[in-house]
Amino acid sequence: MTTAEDLVNIDPNLLLVDDDAAFLGRLERAMARRGFAVRTAGSVAEGIAAVEADPPAYAVVDLRLEDGNGLDVVSRLHAKRPDARAVVLTGYGNIATAVTAVKLGATDYLSKPADADDVINALLASDEERPTPPENPMSADRVRWEHIQRVYELCDRNVSETARRLNMHRRTLQRILAKRAPR
Fold it and tell me: pLDDT per residue over 36-94, tens digit each?
């Protein structure tokens, strides 16, 4: 029986593609501690260049990047190395993009922020078995809070623009932003 460590030892090359430098650094350190030989890219162009230079066995790719769609990296990886396993991460999950990601060669689709153990379970799960659900999933309140924070950051911390995009009253948003994150 092949274990997760055996799979990583066969070909430990992992490509991480994300434009969130803090998240990318944390995930890079966590995956390196778990035995992967990690390369990182901060954009679609860098990700595609890394795939062209040396297609990795594993990839974790953010869906929305500043210069385009992370699915372009997944598609290129699948074309260069059909046996590669890719996981798509996103803060904007919906069924249509999940289906597209799987059609392009992704093995799983996870919501951000994803735990390193969840990412590894998704990367190393066999096609016959589904990865186990997370031990401590985020509460619905926490998921909502994380989404609001992400949109707030994408709007350059502009409360009015964030409220407009979330279809929320500005004062309600200000109250939410003033509170601590739920557990």
Answer: 999 999 999 999 999 999 999 999 998 888 888 888 999 999 999 998 899 988 876 65
Q: Are residues 118 and 145 in the same domain?
A: no
d(CA 83, CA 111) in angstroms, rounded, equals: 23
- d(CA 112, CA 142) in angstroms, rounded, equals 12
Per the structure, how many domains does the chain have? 2
Q: Is residue 64 domain-shared with residue 147, that is, in the same domain?
A: no
Domain that holds residue 148: 140-178
Q: What is the pLDDT of residue 66?
A: 86
Give the mean pLDDT of 138-164.
84
